[in-house]
Amino acid sequence: MTQRKGIILAGGSGTRLYPITMGISKQLLPVYDKPMIYYPLSAIMLAGIREIAIITTPEDQAQFQRLMGDGSQWGLDFTWITQPSPDGLAQAYLLAEEFLAGSPSLMVLGDNIFFGHGLPEMLARADAQGMGGTVFGYRVADPERYGVVDFDDQGRVRAIIEKPSVPPSNYAVTGLYCLDGTAPQKAATISPSPRGELEITTLLELYLSEGALRVETMGRGYAWLDTGTHESLLDAGNFVRTLEQRQGLQIGSPDEIAFSQGWIDATGLDKRISLFGKNAYGAFLKGLVT
């Protein structure tokens, strides 16, 4: 089976977070002690993926590259792609078509944070499916704000409905999409919605019409945070701070994951530690070596 590749969609203008995003990309904002983009990057790394395309706006790309380089410090290989205008989430598959070259992919939205003990195993199950697609449903109290999964009596997905006034379930589709190598071809057949965007829901409906879409529900042991508003950005930072200070562990650390996966050795980690001086993040990484 062809090795799955990763996509982080970190474009968009972040207007809901104005004025704080008027001079910087939303995905470069801090979520407690790390840049926001570290968290979706970590989710892709936990899936064992090392070839990753990062899609940004043309004006923000240099800032991302200054932060993340070519990925070699984590044993990764980054491909940088620009999104001239935010024309919908499904557009990411058109922009990344050459990068994917027929490979299946795991796409994570750049403002989504996932946390849970069984996350690598859940992603591995989705990867093992091969053909078709898997999306991840998460129970929310306000499903009318999201794309919502409609299940039949046997628990199979029947439809995904965008922002329904009467939600058929409490399960929202998260910003994590595990699709096979046909995603760019399918995305190319989509027409823009009334709001002028290539909707990810429409792409998922194409998989569903073929009987090739699975929904994996994330249970109580998982956290899914969307940092698209001022309130949710603060909530996410507080969530990370509480867990890290309580447990003395890191959430969303590419350095820790790269070291634990054997993608970098102790010498490579030491180079990273030297960057962080005596702050808490550097001290944590030093503890991994000693």
Name the features.
alpha/beta; Spore Coat Polysaccharide Biosynthesis Protein SpsA, Chain A; 2 domains; 13 strands; 33% helix
What structural class should be given to the helix and strand makeup?
Answer: alpha/beta
* Helix content class: 25-40%
CATH topology of the largest domain: the name is: Spore Coat Polysaccharide Biosynthesis Protein SpsA, Chain A
CATH superfamily of the largest domain, called what?
A: Spore Coat Polysaccharide Biosynthesis Protein SpsA, Chain A
Number of strands: 13
The count of domains is 2
CATH architecture of the largest domain: Alpha-Beta Complex
Distance between the termini: 38 Å
**Rg:** 19 Å
Identify the CATH class of the largest domain: Alpha Beta
Mean pLDDT: 93
Main sheet: strand order: 5-4-1-6-11-8-12
Report the total helices. 11
Characterization of this structure:
This protein has 290 residues and is α/β, with parallel strands linked by helices. It has 2 domains: 5-248, Alpha-Beta Complex (Spore Coat Polysaccharide Biosynthesis Protein SpsA, Chain A); 253-289, no CATH class. Helix content is 33%, strand content 24%. The chain has 11 helices and 13 strands. Strands 5-4-1-6-11-8-12 form a 7-stranded mixed sheet. A two-stranded antiparallel sheet has the order 2-3. Strand 2 (30-31) and strand 3 form a beta hairpin. Helix 10 (266-275) packs antiparallel against helix 11 (280-289). The N and C termini lie far apart (38 Å). Catalyzes the formation of dTDP-glucose, from dTTP and glucose 1-phosphate, as well as its pyrophosphorolysis. InterPro entries: G1P_thy_trans_s, NTP_transferase_dom, Nucleotide-diphossugar_trans.
